[in-house]
Amino acid sequence: MQISVLVALTLLVLIAFGFLTGRRRALSVRAQGGPRLHSLPNYYGYYIALWTGGPALVLLAAYGAFGSGLVNTLAMSQLEREAAPLIAEFERQLDADAQIIALLEEAAEADADAMEAREAITRARDSGLDPQAFQGALAGHTTRLTEIGARLDQRRGEIARSVAARAPSSDAGIRARSGFEFWNSPRERRELFLADARAIAFGEGLASRNTPELRAAALAMRPVEDIFRWSVAALVLSMAVGGLAWGRSRVKASFRARNRVEAAISGLLMFASIIAILTTLGIVFSLLFESLRFFASIGWRVGDFLFGLQWSPQIAIRADQIGQSGAFGAAPLFAGTALITVIAMSVAVPVGLFSAIYMSEYASKRVRAVAKPILEVLAGVPTVVYGFFALLTVGPFLRDFALFLGYEDAVTQSALSAGLVMGVMIIPFVSSLSDDVINAVPQSLRDGAYAMGATKSETIRHVVLPAALPGIVGAVLLGVSRAIGETMIVVMAAGQGANLTANPLESVTTITVQIVTLLTGDQEFDSSKTLAAFALGLVLFVLTLMLNIIALRVVQRFRERYE
Amino acid sequence: MNRPASIRTAVEARLARRHRAERRFQFYGAAAICLAVAFLALLIGSILIQSVPAMTTWRMTLQVELDRAAIDPRGDMSEASLRRGGYNAAIQQALRDQFPDVEDRAELRELFGLYSSVNAARLLNRVVQDPSLVGGTVSFTFPIDDDADLYLKGVSVRESRAPGPAPVRIQAGEGRAVTLSAEARVFDAFVDDVREAARERARILEQRAERAEAALADAIDRDIRAIYEAEARRARAQAERLRDRLDEGAPVVIGPQIPSLLVQVDGAVIRVSDVSADRRSARGEMVISAPLGEAAHSDWTLWTIETPQAGRLISDRQIAWVDALRERGMTRSGFNTELFTYADSREPELAGVLGALIGSVLTMFVTMLLAVPIGVGAAIYLEEFAPKNRITQLIEVNINNLAAVPSIVFGLLGLAVFINTFGLPRSAPLVGGIVLALMTLPTVIISSRAALKAVPPSIREAALGVGASKTQAVFHHVLPLAAPGILTGSIIGLAQALGETAPLLMIGMVAFIADAPSLGLAGFTEPSTVMPVQIFLWSSAAERAFEARTAAAILVLLTLMVSLNAAAIYLRRRFERRW
């Protein structure tokens, strides 16, 4: 850390020095007479500063981003090489252990049973029978699988400990044990191991444990890190000095410094605009990649995922669970999302559209000046606040109202309360977009209608609205895409239960709620439960993207017609 | 002959109808706007009302004796030794001194439930800073437990006090047990209330049973029938039990389901356990003892706690103690400064938004540092430099689409790319800032482009005309004129990022963080949380006191956002130029 800061400071000094050198040199060239300078003196300074700082800063940033990871990998792979005999021994014992073989056989059996039960459930459903009994059996098999998994883990741990205990307690032995422990840890344990080792080695934060193995890992890291630090520091500084010298050597009266600097600037600007594309690519590829892994883990039954009726991912908790026992049928989520979206839009469209019509056609300037900011405030309220409002004010009110009307099963977290509040959130969205669209309808159309004796409302209904319809449809579609992607309101107010229902007073769950549920809390990144969230994210992204593209197209067409 | 007249009447009738339709239509529009305004008023109003209990807090002041042996176990007055001292025991002793007759373990646990032991850490810090306090007595003020706080605010418990209608004689029994007896039916009102409430409940239960039976008659499915049958049976049985209690000849036993009765007399508080059938005498135990003579007391108070014990988290004894502490002037209500000076805590009375505020500041700093330069750069390129070709068009379409991508998807991107691929730390403001920067980038780009577009071409042409290069024209002339608009757009984008929650949940900023992150370079990689996430966390907390604190935190967040937006509006008004 200290060295990096020192290097960065030196670099800043060098850049400043480079700028001054360039400027001074340009001025001295001019003072000597001869041909006129091509550019202003400052540009020569910028040019040299760019050469001094640019490459060096890129290198420094790359080191900052990847340096520690590289050090960890190098040090740990060294330790793992030393642990090779232990690892070989462990694998040999694992293959030979009678208990593990028995457990694996039992697991395969249980998995087959679970498979059968699942098929029986599907068959029962298809033939209209009650699958209750089979579901009980499936749950039994699943628990058995979990138990077997736990026993397997326990036995593996025992073997690992006995193997590790066999290593001598010399320095080399501890290093080997350290490598073995790292090799044998699951992913999130590895991260913790590395973090602790780094904490011991470089005093970055506090270590959660302090074992001989961790100290050995820390000792292995230190020399690698030192070499890296010093070589990067040297490389950065020599690059800076070299850049400075190279830039300086090019400063002549005829040198087109300004053009070079401007080319660099426009390159930077272009890079800035490409970041937007990189973001989209990042989204598409990360979602696609993780979704493919998810589909691979459920055996490419994409149809089951998209149209399956049972959603209970919570069963597949364990990372090394044999077979897949969670049910990933996302249809209830899509139905819940659709239900809430419909409720939200049935609030937002009438209210938003009518307020847009009133604002653009009837309202006086004074009313507009008051009402428009209020709608903007409604748009600026954070969604978590809407969620709180839905959870503590609207939800209980609707429940009590339903109870008052005699509906017994009313709950606080219902599709109706989430949908209503989400509708309020979308009102300003629909109204401001529709307002723009209505204002874009040419005045001549209205004048024509008035000339024929139409009243204002007739003009609006029969002339303005039909003309603005494509734009309004676009606005509504954008509103729908917003409702589908909205997260906090539904997370707080719609509930968790994956009910396949059209009853707005029941609690439903949505795509976004399940993404949040799957990804918050403890997680391993490789379990299909976590990966399922990315598959849901992909569905969400594709859905909203299609809506957006259609909506933007429609709005653009509309604009072109009247411009 | 009368045809013109009939046409006229027909037209007039139609005209009236058309005008009515016109008025109706206009009314719909006005109603829509009023509805939107009403929603906003309801939203803000309900949050304001809900936040009221969190604005003040009750604190207890105890004279804590810092015994040298207990506070400084090693006896060398070193910091290490002072940090091992028994501070909580000292506070407990100070509280016991107030109620010397509490001895039972369960009762002691109730007594110590009046404050959180986390407070001992504050006493520790005070002693470590000023070791001369050891051996003396310090006056230590700390927030009282949240349930007691809600009771003192009168939010969670309904209670009423009435003077005793006739003199009562109190006989001490074994231990702290006492018997109250009077000539008149002094417990009449209480028993009537209890009976009335029981009758009401029994009526509701019977109604429910009847409904279940009616449904049972309609149901065909066997499982559903079984459910309704069980429901009806349960309701009947409960109602039956309540009817038993209504029996005039039976004594009233005060259980957790019915209101509690306390009796205050001469500084003593008696908790009544049952009232005899003739409503003249009752048995109970002393919660706060005082010497009571054999003579009849005429000045006494019937103190009914109408919320049954099952419906509140504070026990009868705790209520009596808290009330006594208030009488003795040891509790005081004040502005809830803890809310602004503490980080998150599991104890509502010690939970504050400071940690989340600092986390928000750090996150917004990263977002600003990334989104504004990149966004403005992209806008300048697209508006001033980019050739009109396929790639530029692609970038434009792409930015428009990115603006409408759900925010949670950016969280997924952050999780997959920055945390799992690049190995950046989870829950850190650095990653949160990067994700939010990517999310606000389209907003910044679009508003900056609008601001650049608003600068008239004559400015560029004039600059180019006097020999400036294109870059010089843009950076020296166009950009300064567009700066107010760009700034406004950036601030609005940042305000939007400030209120965003969903993407931050994805990158693990939902963890419970009890320490505020440091406001320095190291803070960017420390685990932290931000304001909206804090609101989300508190809103799902079980303790009722968090409800008001959530509303208060929302007010803090809204204030921040309003001031950001006000700054944007001010800048726009102050520097806006029209051509």
UniProtKB/TrEMBL annotation, chain A:
One of its GO terms (biological process) is phosphate ion transport. PROSITE patterns: ABC_TM1 (PS50928). Signal peptide: none annotated. It is a multi-pass membrane protein. GO terms for molecular function: phosphate transmembrane transporter activity. InterPro entries: MetI-like, MetI-like_sf, Phosphate_PstC, PstC_N. Keywords: Cell inner membrane, Cell membrane, Coiled coil, Membrane, Phosphate transport, Transmembrane, Transmembrane helix, Transport. The keyword Repeat does not apply. One of its GO terms (cellular component) is plasma membrane. Residues 87-120 form a coiled coil. The chain crosses the membrane at residues 44-66, 227-247, 268-289, 333-357, 377-398, 410-430, 463-484, 531-555. Its main location: membrane. It is found in: Cell inner membrane; Cell membrane. Residues 334-551 form the ABC transmembrane type-1 domain. PANTHER family: PHOSPHATE TRANSPORT SYSTEM PERMEASE (PTHR42727:SF1), PHOSPHATE TRANSPORT SYSTEM PERMEASE PROTEIN (PTHR42727). NCBIfam families: phosphate_pstC (TIGR02138). Belongs to the binding-protein-dependent transport system permease family. CysTW subfamily. Part of the binding-protein-dependent transport system for phosphate; probably responsible for the translocation of the substrate across the membrane. This is Phosphate transport system permease protein. It comes from Alkalicaulis satelles.
TrEMBL record, chain B:
GO terms for biological process: phosphate ion transmembrane transport. It is found in: Cell inner membrane; Cell membrane. This is Phosphate transport system permease protein PstA. One of its GO terms (molecular function) is phosphate transmembrane transporter activity. Belongs to the binding-protein-dependent transport system permease family. CysTW subfamily. The keyword Nucleotide-binding does not apply. The gene is pstA. InterPro entries: DUF3333, MetI-like, MetI-like_sf, Phosphate_PstA. The chain crosses the membrane at residues 27-49, 353-382, 402-424, 430-452, 551-571. Keywords: Cell membrane, Coiled coil, Membrane, Transmembrane, Transmembrane helix, Transport. It is a multi-pass membrane protein. Residues 195-245 form a coiled coil. Residues 357-566 form the ABC transmembrane type-1 domain. GO terms for cellular component: plasma membrane. The keyword GTP-binding does not apply.
